[in-house]
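> @MW can you paste both from yesterday?
MW: sure, first one:
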Amino acid sequence: MDTITPVVLAGGTGSRLWPLSRSSSPKQLLNIVGDHTLLQETLLRCNKISALPPIIIYNKEYHFQVTEQTKHIGINSAKFIIEPVARNTAPAIAFCALEARKKDENALLFVMPADHYLSFENENDFIEKVRTAESLANDNYLVTFGIVPKAPETGYGYIRLREGLLDQKAFKVAEFIEKPEKKLAELYYKEKNCLWNSGMFLFSASAYLAELQEHSPEIFAICSKSYEKQNEKSGVIYIHPSFSACPSLSIDYAVMEKTQSAVVIPVDAIWSDIGSWSSIYDLKTKNEDGNVIEGDVITEGTKGCYIKSSHRLVAAVGVEDCIIVETRDSILIARKDQSQEIKKIVERLTINNRVEASSHYNVYRPWGAYELLIDLPNYKVKRLIVKEGCSLSLQRHKYRSEHWVVVSGTATIINGDEHLVLYSSQSTYIPQGAKHRLSNFSNTLLEIIEVQIGEYLGEDDIERFDDLYGRNEEIMKDILE
């Protein structure tokens, strides 16, 4: 199936999985189920479907995490597309279709969300269904994959089947149905003529763009103009800011509910959009009390709970049917049947400008990561981990001084006019306003404790003079150190 270009949609935020998932580190970039992150699992699935390099589209905040995770699993030829703002799936897929069609007028796209869980008892059966979809897509059908329901689920959209095609391997779509109430979900499950809407599609780039132009002409026009103005550098496409004017519509609303060419193929699989903590509980192995336990957790008289500890001991006594998630800066306690409402907590945190809504104490950067240890007025302490062969930018700060202490590894440092090589237990003081740079030219990780002191300690107090990752360029000006 080497005519199929995988398209991976990796721009979601996953607010219902707070406090683990946050806007700076959303669920698709986290290891939630299995040995890899959800993005990596999706990309590995791409390899089994097509030998062509995938197209990955996402928000600019995730660029360095996406490229690092892609490289980590040996995918080195992906095309990266960065959105200036999120505008839902219809515009994102349109831009990817324009890019694929530029290289091949007959290009087929297999579109997959990066934040879903999918596993099969018989993976070859799914590959055969993709072959069926490929044949239909070559006949200009827009094919979606519907999951055979395992229960009367109210948290998913449904697709109602019409008459069959290709010996009942595929069906025309009668209608797309929003998330139903319990009674309707039970009816759909009983009638067995509805499938869960998986968000996976296969169609030709040209067919999708033609349908988009007919049914959502504003999206088509804006995407086409922004595509003409794109900026590409080193295999990365930066979508022009004019893309921001696109209506924010899903592919279902913009195209699939309106087209006469929609076809659905049933897929029997274990699938979840991982839209809540309760859905993760459903996927995990339970102990004899029906609990899912992760991390340092002790329970007594506790049943039917998902309890996850990341940093501290969590003890639960006499608790039933709850979600308890501990991170370094936050603790979530919720009933399982209320886990969809967690997004309201995130909305309140955002309104109140709480940092807990957007970022963790662990923050990933192209050179490695840092962990915020102490954050108080006028001083801040961080633990920096610098990867082998990486360097922070040559920079200076207007409002703060810094003190670097080497914990392990070898630090090569520019500090004003000094060039230093420091080892474990050695340190250097960087005065306010001094140009400085931290590098790790060794073949092991470098660990540094950084103490900041000053009247303002925001991450935007950085003036860059040289950067290996292009962050001093206008096109990346919004990505902070």
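MW: second:
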Amino acid sequence: MTFSLDRRAAGVLLHLTSLPGPHGNGDLGPEAYAFVDFLAAAGQRWWQMLPINPVGPGFSPYSGVSAFAGSLLLISLRPLADEGLLTQEELATTLDPARASYDAASELRAALLRRAFTRFEPTPEFADFRERSQFWLPDYTLFMALRHANDRKPWTEWAPELARHEPEALKIAAAALADELRYFEFEQFLFDRQWRALRKYAAERGVGLIGDAPIFIAHDSADVWGNQSSFKLDAQGQPTVVSGVPPDYFSATGQRWGT
């Protein structure tokens, strides 16, 4: 179905994480499909989704570590049991809603996704995803692998040749971190597949999705690290200009967002 803004229509703004879910927050699982059904039954034409990329400092999707990747928090784990990538016992590992937090949900999902990855066999669909995503996926997966290998330190604190994104250094690092690169490809493959399926389901029921661009990117992100010439950085890779607003009625000193 083709969607346009040329006629009056109504919709609802709701981020996926605001839906219920057994693993700390809502995701691309059954509750999202149920919400699409609710919107269609209520005569709503639009679901405004907000950003779905991995969050950055302060857990803000508007300063994400990537403008192109999808958040692991939004990957539904339940389909993985149907595919034999998770056991029912593993899937039953849930978060106590009273103790749920961003960190707890992220750690639980990452642990289960890594377990599923050990049972994953690449498919033609996976190969197609990698081919479609070549313009951003290699930098993102290497950035994430290096980030983990460097105790989550900012890329400006990595080895100088890696911080400068030097091709030969990247080639050596990619070879050493090959398993980690494939894991992050697997993670993004799952997100891509589930996201496309939900979009198709919604479109078939007359519900269009309105996204929201991650209008600012964190300095410590795959996008800045991989495209340093496109940003205002000094010789050490530090930003010389950051976002914010001047003093106004709401803040006597203004706001320094830092992105």
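> thanks! The chain has ten helices and seven strands.
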